[in-house]
Prior knowledge:
The structure holds two protein chains of two kinds.
Chain A: H1 2-39, E1 42-47, H2 52-66, H3 69-72, E2 82-87, H4 90-99, E3 104-107, H5 113-116, E4 123-137, H6 142-145, E5 148-149, H7 151-159, H8 165-168, E6 178-182, H9 187-197, E7 207-209, H10 212-221, E8 225-230, H11 231-236, E9 241-246, H12 253-258, E10 264-271, H13 277-287, H14 289-297, E11 301-302
Parallel strand pairs in A: 1-2, 1-3, 5-9, 6-7, 6-8
Antiparallel strand pairs in A: 3-10, 4-8, 4-9, 4-10, 4-11
Chain B: H1 6-47, H2 50-55, E1 59-60, E2 67-68, H3 71-102, H4 105-119, H5 123-141, H6 150-174, H7 178-187, H8 191-202, H9 204-220, H10 223-228, H11 246-254, H12 262-296
Antiparallel strand pairs in B: 1-2
Helix pairs in contact in B: 1-12, 3-6, 3-9, 4-6, 5-6, 6-9, 7-8, 9-12, 11-12
Amino acid sequence: xxxxxxxxxxxxxxxxxxxxxxxxxxxxxxxxxxxxxxxxxxxxxxxxxxxxxxxxxxxxxxxxxxxxxxxxxxxxxxxxxxxxxxxxxxxxxxxxxxxxxxxxxxxxxxxxxxxxxxxxxxxxxxxxxxxxxxxxxxxxxxxxxxxxxxxxxxxxxxxxxxxxxxxxxxxxxxxxxxxxxxxxxxxxxxxxxxxxxxxxxxxxxxxxxxxxxxxxxxxxxxxxxxxxxxxxxxxxxxxxxxxxxxxxxxxxxxxxxxxxxxxxxxxxxxxxxxxxxxxxxxxxxxxxxxxxxxxxxxxxxxxxx
Amino acid sequence: xxxxxxxxxxxxxxxxxxxxxxxxxxxxxxxxxxxxxxxxxxxxxxxxxxxxxxxxxxxxxxxxxxxxxxxxxxxxxxxxxxxxxxxxxxxxxxxxxxxxxxxxxxxxxxxxxxxxxxxxxxxxxxxxxxxxxxxxxxxxxxxxxxxxxxxxxxxxxxxxxxxxxxxxxxxxxxxxxxxxxxxxxxxxxxxxxxxxxxxxxxxxxxxxxxxxxxxxxxxxxxxxxxxxxxxxxxxxxxxxxxxxxxxxxxxxxxxxxxxxxxxxxxxxxxxxxxxxxxxxxxxxxxxxxxxxxxxxxxx
Lengths: 305, 299
């Protein structure tokens, strides 16, 4: 009986101390942060759901190739390489890079000047470009009947003025157009707004899909869906998603590089402070042929070296 | 009279203080969270106004000028949670009555753990199943352009809250005093009569409490709803419209909103509304349960 009482008292006080420690956490942060910087053993990266698979693949290859840091560079200590990649959207990547949650933030959108200003001490590295294709299901006759849409038609579809495929072209079936978009305010929707909608609000009937992969999945599953999809995902599913031309411009590599195809965004790695030796090595690796090969393999357009 | 050992007395006091401080700290945690969310969302309440925020029907957080109205989300939340309750309540009550009164011991021994296990399945799995199976089914079966709807979300949620309703209602049924059962038995009424006319009315309040708890849970559920409700910004007039419940709105947009912007604050404001709704529901449960305790005995 006595023993039990003491045990519960002990547990209760541990709990109380934990809670108190939580309160004190903020004032101590400065000190622990510095400690973490000198003894940091892992690189934490987070942000854009489009970039996460690319960076995760690169991190895998990098870890497998070198295993420990001293094999990357003899001056580095013999510690296992640990790189963590998590997703959460471009805005999250930007935010976490600024507040230090992550060593690198991933963002797939053109940065505004005030956003760039937050990284003057750090780095902004472009690895490549992501192009948003206007994608439809392979079973949708629009790909044969009307493989080219004008910007005006796109605006009409995405703002909800045109509601059925038949209204777009009489040869098409009389079925509702299912408009699939990413969440408003996200990187992709910002790009689409800037290049196509120019401020016209997206239809309130549009399905907002939480990730680019799910958006591609929706187009593959549903024959009436139209949406903007990363070219990477279109290239990974060539027979299931058909990209449409916009204003007569086919989203090919040439047209994208020449700037004729307008709906696109950069793939960016952001860091608030100057990267330390390990981080710089990984950043160099991403920009090397091996890293850019992954960017290309995933269907995106790597930066030209 | 017992002689009190002074050392024991001091020990008791110390123990008391520790327990009280732990209890206080955990309630402080809730208070701190509410205050934090209120602080983060304050610009919305002062600039947009409480009524305009709650009753506005247009949500355009990144347009210029931005518009913040969460009426479509509030309505969607109500449709989804209310609808889930509508589906799950008859099933849950039926299950509970069967388990408490009619099920053979062997059947109950299998059914009960299976039902309880349902609570342990992560909600993202339910959502995934809903998105992969249910939505496809609606699209093909009813020839819809797209199968997402508040109804689909309600169906998924109904499966998730069913075990809560069943377990809590069964407890309520079992906690009816044995004297009622004995009296009924000695009068020779049938088991059906005993269960439906005597036990259920007596356990009514406990069963109602289980419903309200389930409703609170259904309102706050995120993942499953995010994947099947369709997330459109329309004001949903029917159960079969698409919609975007509050948790889905927050989960969808918080990642891409930039801290400090009015968009970010609006999402916190939406979170505050959701928390207050759930707290109100829980307070309601407490009031009900208090009445239950004082209400049954002197009957």
